[in-house]
Amino acid sequence: MKYYLHRISNHIDWSHPLLEQKNLLSIGWVDIAAKLEHFISEHQNDWAKVPATVADYCEKEWGSIPRSRFGLQRFLEMEQGDWIVVPTWRAFHIYEIVSDERLVPNLIENDLKDFKNWNGISPIIKDGSIRPENEENTELDLGFFRQVKAIERDIDRGDYANASLTSRLKSRQTNLDISDLEESIKRALNQYKEKRPINLRNELKKKLAPELQKTVLEMKGPDQFENLIERYFEQNGASVLRPAKNEPDKEGDADIIATFESLNLMVYVQAKRHDKDTETDTMAVNQIKQYVEYKSNNDDEYSNLLWVISTADKFTGDCINEARKSNVRLINGEEFSQMLLDTGIKHL
What global pTM score does this model have? Predict the structure, then answer.
């Protein structure tokens, strides 16, 4: 029995509900699944040959060889009984592989008959790939699937993941063999079931953050919210610039630029003061991304981080997708409140 970490980030408005509703864990590589008809049968006795086959196909088709081909090998190597840790936003799920079948879109067609994605759109299978019913020419990069069952979902990272597991959950690779963390995973699961958080400090933050978030929402006007963000960065040692709103020839928008001189690091922030129950949309991501692209020639000696801080609880699915593609960090009202508690509110 092995333990894997598997990050499902392709088309999250489809892949996450497929996991939750249909117990189908997914990965990309739809080209391989749809166009190499006997791919599974030709490799099932030696999954170590997968990267070479994928490399040969990609070099012929695209002229490049992706490193992520090893992630596909690990995905197909997973065996019945293996545990899969699936990171999500501020939490993680634990699943178990329940079948040694390696599935492609044509083999899950029956599972999709009553399925809708987060936006209420049904899928169809066409030419060996999954497509939205309202956009039949749009091929979703969801190529291979494994049947799983949930052991536990939505385990809070801050409360139940120790330092080793927390560090591994931050990995940006598609998947990893994390069998060395067996004890950490089982401890997190057991303490979650017993409702015994690892860290009392995190439990207090979790209880205090909603009250602080409520106070932030009661502030009048966006200026006070931006002032709070400015003080947050200053308390963490940054110098802060508030760009002029009428900057000539400006593209996009940033409300705060925090510079950590000793690190040659700049954090560009788009602040959105939205109602708690609304969802912040892609405009915020596009604004900060375009602004940094506009400014990048002037700041080449610095590394850049792009943040969107919103007082709302949620971000739209499209916003989350765009943020992942553009490496933009999304921070909602509760998370920002916890960040303020971490920093301390003495001088805020």
Answer: 0.68
